[in-house]
Design a protein that fits this description.
Strand order of the largest sheet: 1-2-6-3
Structural class: alpha+beta
Strand content: 5-15%
Radius of gyration: 23 Å
Number of helices: 18
Distance between the termini: 67 Å
Largest sheet: 4 strands, mixed
Oligomer: single chain
Helix content: 40-55%
Bound molecules: protoporphyrin IX containing FE
Shape: globular
Length: 489
């Protein structure tokens, strides 16, 4: 373990003593977010571990993380060069690749504006305020029908299996202008394999840091590579179809708008950042990948919490009945009138912290934080789970209590409390899909809660143990749903 020279006035990073060759990998075990939280109590909010022989700086504590990602954002905005990341989107991912900062910035700007303009686009159907509202409303209705059919046939359903197709259809609608049937085998075989992706892409995967492990046979790694290859060819086929039918005067979706951008750029000699067409159009791969698994996970945890806390499910239903009514479907514009639902979503994000770490960051130059020296190119883990369970920030952090986010008279969400939850990262690498994701989760839930009541299977205990990964899922399970009684409506 080579020790860097420490500039005068700065301190060496504290941290546990590493073992030869493997470093502290054994201390990470199955729940790295918990073991690294325990270490932060001992070593402070900035400390260093070794995975293999590679140093990794771990940041916790709301103030420290905000200092690094917001105030010193530029210095912490890089991505590390990790083995598994080279297989994601053929090594050209916007979110995971080590793109130079100019290229990453240009791609991020493009992705952000495409996403925003296509989800806010006016719907052709005047019933809806925008395309996102139309897609979510229609998919939520299909989902309700689907769950009722499955309930009739089987008496129970696996929530993730059905939610994932509905959510994938929303992002497919925006990115590719199409939707898939709930029985489409090609889509299903991709979207139901997200667990293999998440296990390998989660922070602290030993094979990313210990090169010898890359040469040993691993089922996880093989599944990860196969999945990425299939995902890429699925998207590439759709992109080829778009190129073949592209019409400048009829931009149908995000894929068309990215192709259009490449065409325009060829005419613009002053365009100063060199980004290949492949890297521009490849942005849809990231949007599709990031857009279905995260929102599916958020919705499936929401359903689990409603089942685990039936009294909370009843309060959500009552709020909808009073503030929206049962005669019409909820809309995005109803959100300010449903503060308990918003508080419930915040508490689901905080309590589950299903993205326990952000995607790993990397320092872009020599820097320091809280008086500790951190060299350029150091891999940095941001422990979101620690912030969301920090007893300094939260009363009873382990209890599930949406009321913590409501004002004293329960009529509105306390914005300051809400902003303490860190689920989408912060600063320059902050999630670009945050607004869409929050709107999607809200609207799917509002529509589901109005029509369905969820229950656990009689005699089967509910297992809420998260399985570690980039996004953490609960174990596969079966639930029941009943239509809200007609006379109530
Ligand atoms: C990055 C969370 C939904 C697109 C991220 C990051 C987090 C996150 C924690 C990493 C931030 C960092 O590295 O510091 C979430 C959660 C979601 C969600 C909790 C849903 C509840 C979405 C959606 C999209 C999206 C719907 C797009 C349609 C992206 C992209 C990045 C990203 C492209 C990479 C940004 C970059 O590296 O510059 N998200 N996300 N996300 N997210 Fe999301």
């Amino acid at each position: 373990f080579l020790q860097p020279e420490i500039p005068e006035g700065l301190c060496r990073l504290p941290g546990p003593k590493p073992l030869p060759l493997i470093g502290n990998v054994l201390e990470l075990r199955h729940k790295p977010y918990q073991s690294l939280t325990a270490m932060s109590k001992r070593y402070g909010h900035v400390f260093q571990i070794h995975i293999g022989t590679r140093p990794v700086v771990v940041l916790s504590g709301s103030e420290t993380v905000r200092q690094a990602l917001i105030k010193q954002g530029e210095e912490f905005a890089g991505r590390p060069d990790l083995y598994s990341f080279q297989f994601i989107n053929d090594g050209k991912s916007l979110a995971f690749s080590t793109d130079q900062s100019g290229v990453w910035r240009a791609r991020r700007k493009l992705a952000y504006s495409a996403l925003r303009s296509f989800s806010n686009l006016e719907s052709k159907n005047s019933e809806y305020s925008c395309v996102l509202e139309e897609h979510v409303s229609k998919e939520a209705e299909y989902l309700i029908k689907r769950l009722c059919t499955v309930m009739k046939a089987d008496g129970s359903f696996d929530p993730v299996r059905h939610i994932v197709v509905s959510v994938a259809n929303v992002i497919c609608g925006i990115c590719f202008g199409r939707r898939y049937s709930h029985d489409d085998q090609e889509l299903l075989s991709l979207v139901t394999l997200a667990d293999d992706f998440n296990q390998v892409a989660g922070s602290g995967n030993p094979a990313d840091f210990i090169p010898i492990l890359q040469y040993l046979p691993s089922r996880n790694m093989k599944n990860f590579m196969d999945l990425n290859a299939r995902f890429n060819s699925f998207v590439q086929k759709i992109v080829r179809e778009h190129y073949a039918t592209y019409d400048k005067d009829n931009i149908r979706d995000i894929t068309d708008s990215l192709i259009d951008h490449c065409e325009d750029r060829k005419l613009d000699e002053n365009f100063n950042v060199q980004v290949s067409d492949e890297k521009i159009v490849g942005i849809v791969n990231d949007l599709f990948g990031a857009g279905f698994d995260t929102v599916t996970t958020a919705l499936s945890w929401s359903v689990m919490y409603m089942v685990a806390y039936p009294e909370i499910q009843e309060r959500l239903y009552d709020e909808l009945k009073v503030n929206v009514g049962l005669e019409r479907s909820p809309r995005l514009s109803d959100k300010p009138n449903l503060p308990f639902l918003e508080a419930f979503i915040l508490e689901m994000l905080r309590h589950s912290s299903f993205l326990p770490f952000t995607i790993p960051h990397c320092t872009t130059k020599d820097t320091s934080l809280n008086g500790y020296f951190i060299p350029k190119d150091t891999c940095v883990f941001i422990n979101q789970w620690q912030i969301n369970h920090d007893p300094e920030l939260w009363k009873d952090p382990f209890s599930f209590n949406p009321d913590r986010f409501l004002s004293a008279d329960s009529t509105e969400v306390n914005k300051v409390e809400g902003e303490k939850v860190v689920a989408f990262g912060l600063g320059k690498r902050r999630c670009i899909g945050e607004v869409i994701a929050r709107n999607e989760v809200y609207l799917f839930l509002a529509i589901l809660i109005q029509k369905l009541e969820f229950h656990q299977m009689p005699g089967v205990p509910l297992d809420m143990t998260p399985q570690y990964g980039l996004t953490m899922k609960h174990k596969p399970c079966h639930l029941r749903a009943t239509m809200r009684a007609i006379n109530e409506q």
